[in-house]
C-alpha cells in the first residue's frame, strides 16, 4: 500500500520534472512518507530496539510501537504533501 504512489509520482516527474513536481504535488513530502514507512517496516522486521536490549522494551518502546509511530509520521507527511498540492493547484488557476 505504501508503494501505491510510485506510479503517479514517476508520471509527475516525467511530465513536470523534480522541482515543478515538488511545487505542484508536494513530491518531497511523499518521498519522506515512503522513507518513514520503510524505516518502520525495517524496525519491526529486524526487532529494533529489542534485539539490542532484550526485555528492556517489553512495555514501552518495542519495535511494534516504533513501527506505529513511524507510520503516524508517514501519514502526517502524506497530509502535508496533499496540502501543498492543494494550495498550489487552487492558487494557480489554469482555466
UniProtKB/TrEMBL annotation:
Record's bilayer topology term: Multi-pass membrane protein
Location, primary (coarse class): membrane
GO cellular component, as recorded: membrane
GO biological process: intracellular zinc ion homeostasis
Pfam families for this protein: HlyIII (PF03006)
Ligand binding (Zn(2+)): 64, 68
Record keyword Oxidoreductase present: no
Keyword vocabulary terms for this entry: Membrane, Metal-binding, Transmembrane, Transmembrane helix, Zinc
Family: Belongs to the ADIPOR family.
The name this protein goes by in its record: Uncharacterized protein
Taxonomic source organism: Piloderma croceum (strain F 1598)
